[in-house]
Amino acid sequence: MDQQIGSGSLCFSEAPFIVSSASVAGKKESEGPLGSCFDMVGADDKFGQDTWEAAESSLQKEALTLALGKAKCRAEEIRFLFAGDLLGQNIASSFGLKSFEIPLFGLYGACSTCGEALSLAAMCVAAGYADRAAAVTSSHFASAEKQFRFPLEYANQRPVSATWTVTGSGAFVLAGKSLEGELPVKPLARITGVTPGKIVDYGVKDSMNMGAAMAPAACDLIARNLQDFGRKPEDYDRIVTGDLGSVGQEILIRLLKEKGYDISRLHEDCGIRIYDKKAQGTGSGGSGCGCSAVTLSAYYLKLLEKKELRRILFVPTGALLSPISFNEGQSVPGIAHGVVIEACE
Q: What was the pLDDT predicted at 208?
């Protein structure tokens, strides 16, 4: 079976399993609609560390430890680890995961990194390069604000279009089809295909409106996925973006309608689902590498495991800017990665 389909997608003939997942979240996230769904919540957002960056590393370490425990799998059984975060040089991942001593591919896709990590891990396992692989991503409100915007002590006013960086980490253990029947736990779901994203730049220069910058990339990705797989929007139970918030959601739905696709009844966004934006004052919603990761782990995978959902298109979205590019007047390009996740048969 030819696994390459369409203009740039993969449909796995031996779909890898998501064997386990784990979510670790911050205090604000625990006060939102998904608060009871997370595996671990920090008593405070420093997670016992001295710095925000060390706290984010702690998030990743705890998430992967929990995911391995749920999979009844030792670290040495994981052949490759795909991980990333928002910090310079991926320091949350490198410091958080070094003790596991697993060969690491460090990734940066901004807030789309969860989709990138899952895609690459699934490709690796499906191709037979690894029996087991893991994907981990994280973000932290304070470390992200410190790097990309303003120190917390500045207490700047945020526009309603701004999204709130999620403090959280999600970890996922994948296993190959060849291990079916040998796994010590029942898998949660399968990754049956991926559509890698393209960089899409609409010239948005407002760094406080990430939804507007990322929505065109999500539109391009979803349209290409539907074309490559020969599907209609309703062939998915949900089309789930990662970080658009309410502003980006409105733009995405309008852009796809211009292409002839109406996803208004199917679309959900992790950034909208994770917070009660009116009660919690989170502006347009949530964002960050951890946003889509913890929401997938804590919410959507559970629905797939129970077969309340059969197939979703998971589309984390990222804004590819840095403090340097923004200060030099560059626009904010967007990217999105699509992962087709289905319930186990």
A: 75
Q: Spell out where the chain has E strands.
A: 4-5, 9-11, 17-25, 40-41, 80-84, 104-107, 132-139, 163-165, 168-175, 189-195, 238-241, 267-269, 285-287, 311-315, 317-319, 334-336, 338-342
Query: What letter does residue 76 receive in the DSSP assignment?
Result: G
CA distance 144 to 121: 25
**What is the reported pTM?**
0.95
Amino acid at 307: K
CA 233 – CA 230 distance, rounded (Å) = 10
Secondary structure (3-state) at 84? strand
pLDDT along the chain (345 residues), means of 10: 88 96 96 96 92 96 98 98 95 97 97 97 97 97 76 55 85 94 95 98 84 95 98 98 94 98 98 91 88 98 98 96 85 96 95
DSSP 34: T
Judged by DSSP in three states, 267 sits in strand
Task: For the chain, list the domains and their CATH numbers.
Answer: 16-179 (3.40.47.40), 189-342 (3.40.47.40)
